[in-house]
Structure formats: C-alpha cells, structure tokens
Design brief:
Helices cover 36% and strands 18% of the residues. The chain is α+β, with helices and mostly antiparallel strands. It has a domain at 67-173: 2-Layer Sandwich (Gyrase A, domain 2), CATH 3.30.1360.
Length: 175
C-alpha cells in the first residue's frame, strides 16, 4: 500500500513537470460565518471556509457567550485558591462545540481548560462530546459544569495532582 501511494505521488509530480504555465489560481470565495440560535451548539462544517485560524480565534473572542462565569474569572479564582494556571491562552472553541475556550497548565503539569457555552444545555452537550471524543487520550480528565461554563482538568497520570484537581473543581463550582 505504501509503495502504491509513493508511486501515485511520483506520477502526479512527473505529470505536472511538463507544464509551461501553471494553471490560474481561482480566488476562493469567503463563506460568511453562520449565525445560530443562542441555545444551539456550535458546529464547524467542513465545507465552511474560515480563511485562517487567527480570524476564527478573533471571531470567537468578539462573539463570546455573555452568560455564566468567564475563563478569566475562573483563572483569577484559581490564583486566589493557590492553583495558578500558567501559559493561559485562547484556543478554538468550535473544536469543543463551544463559543470560546481558553486553557493553560498548573505548575504540577495539570492541564486546565475553560469553555464558555451559550446555555447549560449546550455545555452539557459539549461535555458529552469531549467525553466521547477524548476518552482514550485523556483517561485522567475530570469535566465539571457550572451553568454554561465547562471546566476540564486533565492530570498527566492517576496519581498526579489529585489534591490540586479537587481544589480547582471546588473553586470552580463555588463561583
């Protein structure tokens, strides 16, 4: 199979070498980002042109759900509780069916992620999606809902950071 793929690549390269002029590039039409109902989970359709990840990140930052606690509020509460999260940055919320997500890592190597949703129901759907999608990759993850906000705590191993993960979860639910 590998040899067949390699041969196909060589044939395609050889066929394109004899051209005098490259074919004219057709400009891609930008598809506008679809509007959605407030209680509808986000979904990225493969045919939708997002142009760039930077544009999508900017769009999500400008169109954050205006409900529940924000990622910044969660991270500030963690700092006060002695669970500082380093390297905080936004990542694509749409990959978690969320309106906005940000995350970072504790000093103990525990990955912390906060995703903001349009409703508690959308957050629950996002939690179920993550549980299905990432179960094998993150066996030591704990996901906690608080209204339309979802906290993911991913420990590197079963015996690492149990106390920190518990403190983070309790701090989050008390907000």
């Amino acid at each position: 199979m590998r040899d067949q793929i390699f041969m196909a690549i060589i044939l395609l390269a050889a066929a394109s070498c004899g051209r005098d002029e490259p074919p004219a590039a057709q400009p891609a039409a930008k598809a506008p980002l679809r509007e959605r109902a407030a209680d509808q989970p986000l979904a990225l359709e493969p045919s939708q042109d997002l142009s760039s990840i930077a544009e999508r990140l900017a769009w999500e930052a400008q169109h954050r759900p205006q409900r529940g606690v924000t990622a910044e509020q969660v991270f500030a509460a963690f700092d006060r509780a002695g669970v500082p999260v380093r390297g905080q940055r936004q990542y694509l919320g749409v990959t978690m069916q969320a309106g906005y997500c940000a995350g970072g890592v504790t000093l103990e190597g525990i990955a912390i992620s906060v995703c903001e949703y349009t409703s508690p129901e959308a957050a629950e759907a996002g939690r179920r999606f993550m549980e299905r999608r990432f179960a094998a990759m993150t066996p030591h993850a704990k996901r906690v809902l608080h209204g339309p906000t979802l906290l993911s705590i991913t420990r590197p191993s079963a015996d690492t950071g149990t106390e920190i993960a518990t403190r983070a979860a309790l701090t989050f639910t008390s907000l």
